[in-house]
Amino acid sequence: MHPLAESVQAKFPQAVVSVYEWRGDVALTIARAQVHEVCRYLRDDSKMDFDYMVHVSSVDWPDDEERFEVVWEVYSIRHRHRIRIKTRVPEQDCYVDSMVDIWRGAEFMEREVFDMMGIRFKNHPDLRRILMPDEYDEGWPLRKDFPLQGKGWRDTFDFLKEGTS
């Protein structure tokens, strides 16, 4: 097992759901209830020192009980190592703790995940739409069950009509 994963596993044995390593990249799936605590440890522990938020994203697994996966990728500039933290979120209880209080750089990226997938970030300082119009209320565009043809209003654009130049 990768030394980073071993350290997290030793500190939080009940929180680590799974560890995946491939070509030196490490991904830990953490129980949703402990993900904030684990992330704080990753930033604050001097051997970890993950001081840079690289990316926040999400994955939609529509056939799974815990439909969504939220992914934070962080990097340590001093130690030159990275880790990917994942947690699963059920559709009917679609929230996870925000990491903005740990990594300020997560703010806009968490807003994008909210805007596109509908996953709410608890304690986020400004959770509102960032890509879609404020009044948009027709679903979550990156969910796999979002209709490809739209919900009607997009079909009325002139450039979509046959023979329009």
TrEMBL record:
<keyword id="KW-0520">NAD</keyword>
<feature type="domain" description="NADH:ubiquinone oxidoreductase 30kDa subunit">
    <location>
        <begin position="29"/>
        <end position="151"/>
    </location>
</feature>
<dbReference type="InterPro" id="IPR020396">
    <property type="entry name" value="NADH_UbQ_OxRdtase_CS"/>
</dbReference>
<keyword id="KW-1003">Cell membrane</keyword>
<dbReference type="InterPro" id="IPR010218">
    <property type="entry name" value="NADH_DH_suC"/>
</dbReference>
<keyword id="KW-1278">Translocase</keyword>
<dbReference type="InterPro" id="IPR001268">
    <property type="entry name" value="NADH_UbQ_OxRdtase_30kDa_su"/>
</dbReference>
<keyword id="KW-0813">Transport</keyword>
<protein>
    <recommendedName>
        <fullName>NADH-quinone oxidoreductase subunit C</fullName>
        <ecNumber>7.1.1.-</ecNumber>
    </recommendedName>
</protein>
<keyword id="KW-0472">Membrane</keyword>
<keyword id="KW-0874">Quinone</keyword>
<comment type="subunit">
    <text>NDH-1 is composed of 14 different subunits. Subunits NuoB, C, D, E, F, and G constitute the peripheral sector of the complex.</text>
</comment>
<comment type="similarity">
    <text>Belongs to the complex I 30 kDa subunit family.</text>
</comment>
<keyword id="KW-0830">Ubiquinone</keyword>
<dbReference type="InterPro" id="IPR037232">
    <property type="entry name" value="NADH_quin_OxRdtase_su_C/D-like"/>
</dbReference>
<comment type="function">
    <text>NDH-1 shuttles electrons from NADH, via FMN and iron-sulfur (Fe-S) centers, to quinones in the respiratory chain. The immediate electron acceptor for the enzyme in this species is believed to be ubiquinone. Couples the redox reaction to proton translocation (for every two electrons transferred, four hydrogen ions are translocated across the cytoplasmic membrane), and thus conserves the redox energy in a proton gradient.</text>
</comment>
<dbReference type="Pfam" id="PF00329">
    <property type="entry name" value="Complex1_30kDa"/>
</dbReference>
